[in-house]
Amino acid sequence: ESAFPSEILKDFLFLGSYDNASRSELLKTIGISHILNTVPLCQNLYRNSFTYHCLQDDKTLQFDDAIQFLEQCERDKARVLVHCMSGKSRCVSCICSSLLDEVQRLATCTMFSVGERTEATSATG
């Protein structure tokens, strides 16, 4: 296990373990300001230093809840650590879900844009 979280998206999204999340000085050094805790049983150790969001259900992952938090972090240009106990399962699933959601939105926008251009070309052509 690495002492450092993995940077998934430059200057924005970091993946890590509870051990990573428990290293306040390290997180501050790399500019983390927000933490998505995917394990309800893990304590949010530094509430005065970071903005936390904790998923509440230990049995199922609340992807929509996680995605909304990550989208807000992105709008705020905040660096966010997503963590679970080992940094291998729950947090990876949340990050993958968020990235897939972004890809789906981009694909929808692209299809809409192509459709508008096709209609415009047909109308003038």
From TrEMBL:
Descriptive protein name: Tyrosine-protein phosphatase domain-containing protein
GO biological process, one term: auxin-activated signaling pathway
Domain Tyrosine-protein phosphatase: 4-125
Pfam families assigned: DSPc
GO cellular component assignments: nucleus
SUPFAM superfamilies in UniProt: (Phosphotyrosine protein) phosphatases II
GO molecular function, one term: MAP kinase phosphatase activity
